[in-house]
Every structure is written in structure tokens, then in C-alpha cells.
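Researcher: Next sequence.
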Amino acid sequence: MVDLDPTDDKTDEELALEPRAGSRPAFEELALRYKRRLFVYLRPRLASDQDTEDMVQETFLKLYRNIDRYDPAYRFSTWLYTAATRLTISSYRKKRIAAGPLRGEEAGGVADPAAGPAAGTDAAGLWDSARALAESQFRVLWLRYGEDMEVAEIARAIGKSRVAVSLLLHRARTNLMKRTGAAPAGAMAAAKPAAAGGPTAG
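Model: Next structure:
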């Protein structure tokens, strides 16, 4: 008989409340769900895969230490991406890390946001093309279609106004359509990353 993990059926928000009572497995499950996705989100802004992996780890460590500050009125993903964005900006200012291109062969299998069967489809190709856009445009596309965030949530996560986010999304979609000739919204949403059980990074 297979023992089912009790964390599998819980929402991110439910899991985020449990570490306050000392449940480390609950937070580890959250890290497992988001590690791959956070890597893809952060990679265009950092100089190397190693820098990105370090930033992913630093983000989760910061959240674990401050888990009592999590407000369940907001989605956990919004809190996560807000923290990751702020840490990356701080790191950039301190170290002046130069942005570098993401090469699939260096990314340990996490380069493509599309998981499983979606790899190699038109949707996956759209995400590849999206990486060639300005870093800020890729980020808002990722949060909108990869993480299914609303404009208000994206604004909170990246520290911009709703108007600025809407403008970035418009520019990103327009530029992506010019590159690919395809409307990105539906196809990119269809290729959103798996929440759990995806590839694990070392």
C-alpha cells in the first residue's frame, strides 16, 4: 500500500501557514513546487545558472525565516515573486551582475517553461521567442501566463503600477506577435509550468 503525502492535496496558501507551527515538510513542498518556475523567472536577469540557483535558494531561505509575515489574503506565489524580485534588484545593485542569455544546454532541463508533453510544441516555441524580448517584458509574460497572475498581482510582485504592467504586457504581446506571427496569450497559457512534480534542480 502506497502512503500518500498529505501535502499533495493542499493549496500553496494552506502549506504556507503550516511552517508557523513548525512544519518544515510543508515549506519543503512549497519549495519543490516553485523551484523550477522561479529559476526560469529569474534566469534572464542574472549572469549564470549558478547565480540563479543561488538566488532561488536565497529567496526560499528568506521566506522561511519570515514565514510568520505571510498574509494569506494574498496568494503565496505573489509573495514569493515579490521577494525574489526585491532580492534580485538588491543583488544587482550590490554586485552589478550583468544579465546573460539563457542557454538550454546549461539550464539543467529547466530552460523551457512548458512541462512534459508541451515541449517541442508551438507553445514552447513561443516561450523560447519570449526570452529574446526585453527582460521586463519576459517577466510580465511569465507571471501573467506562466503563473496565471492578474495585473494587480503582477504589479505587486514587481513593484510597478497596474498601468505600467498593462503597458509592459501590451508591448510584450505586440513584440512577440511581430517575432512569431502568432497571438501569444492562449498558447502560452496552455504551456504553463506544472505546479508540482516537475523537474528538480540540484
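Model: Residues 76-95 form the longest helix (20 residues). The chain has two domains: 12-100, 117-194.
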